[in-house]
Design a protein that fits this description.
TIM Barrel; 8-stranded parallel beta barrel; 3-stranded antiparallel beta sheet; 37% helix; globular; binds 6-O-phosphono-beta-D-glucopyranose
Length: 494
Amino acid sequence: MAFNKDFLWGGATAANQVEGGFDADGKGLSTSDVMTAGSNKQPRHITWINRETGETGYSELGFGGKRVAPEGAEPAILPGEFYPSHVASDFYHHYKEDIALMAEMGFKTFRMSINWSRIFPNGDDETPNEAGLEFYDHVFDELNAHHIEPLVTLSHYETPLHLAIKYNGWASRDLIDFYVKYATTVFKRYTGKVRYWLTFNEINCMDMMPFVAGGLIDGSAQNRAQGAHNQFVASALAVKAGHEIDSNYRIGQMLAYSQFYPLTADPADQLKALKAMDDNLFYSDVQTGGHYPASRLASYQRQGIKLDDRPEDYDLLAKYPADFLSFSCYTSNVLTTHEDEAEAGGNLMQGVKNPYLTTSDWGWANDPDVLRMALNTLYDRYRKPLWIVENGLGALDKVEADGKIHDDYRIDYLQQNIKSMRDAVTLDGIDLMGYTSWGCIDLVSAGTGEMRKRYGYIYVDQNDEGTGSLKRLRKDFFYWYKKVIASNGEDLSK
Ligand code: BG6
């Protein structure tokens, strides 16, 4: 057997993408609640208002350090706009049915997140919202009743909106205390119901999407560096608090793994790819490795970035690193210094097209080998247990007249990816705890805000305009994955 008998098979979601109920039972607004829907061609927007002048507008997600609302304005919900997180897949009201379907597939684990603004509606409240705490009590009880181990992300691409507006999100050190209070509250409340936790989803996305990953309205390079530092310290303090509350708790990091290939054998291309990998792994060097790498400190110095830090921050980082390293992994990127080739291949920002790989409906390269590379790279670098918490194919699905969904393309993708992961375990000796592929139930895409970019094995009848019966249907993949789990990853045949 490639995988040990306790291997954690399952699927993954995030509160803001699946729950809906955005203002139910005392929940406050989060940063994801002011994001509109987009598409492959049209980016998602953040809507804002200047409360003094009444002026309203849209901004992009803050890529490249741009402000997401002009000075004097703040992100807000505007009448007549559509916000996909508000209803999403309505897991808030369907969780029992959804968990029963997961149990039918034989899930050992379910990755989900707690929406911080359900627990502390503003983020800096004195006391938590009991109704929010109760909702997750019910979800965990339901999971436990089906012998499904929850894997809980504390912050998955949503920060209470009030913290973004009042403090510029994670750019402020105040958020460390608010987050630790939130983490401590849920660690205490759910003792005995949850064992596995992740502190921040894709912490390394702070650089690329500071509003999404850290609630930064002004995402300048200085603020992004400070935002990452504050999250590192908060994560270390959460590990410390979690272990004190329950010594069984295992609290992990979550990294968006990126594999960069050089386009040519030109050493300049090689160096560019290597530096891009290092830039990304900086986040796990600190959170899992416990130390800032010299290259990042040198880069801060070059850019004139000065961290608002304390000597004890660095002791905390070294003393309370993550217990394990989890990551998302979907695709790979190609980089080059040869601009002529880059132009021929496509967009320089996202890298150039890989001539050896096909792409998904959304242009992501299909590259199963990257999973094995990721597992080797991360295990060699940190020697800590790993967990693949996201992997999968976002695709257009068609419901046939008889209600069936024949998603062979998804089976092909996962078949190759699970094979790659299996090779890493059997041939390379990687210590792997589990596999929760992304979006086990259809949910809103984080990148585009669409519903039609579907990853699930459970179809949800909901469209891009936020209407549908919300009925759940089993895709062909559902039955295939059930067999994979039952055979502990031995039987990948169709
Ligand atoms: C990861 C995120 O980056 O990728 C998820 O953690 C996200 O929240 C997933 O949904 C897939 O990306 P997308 O843009 O297809 O939803």
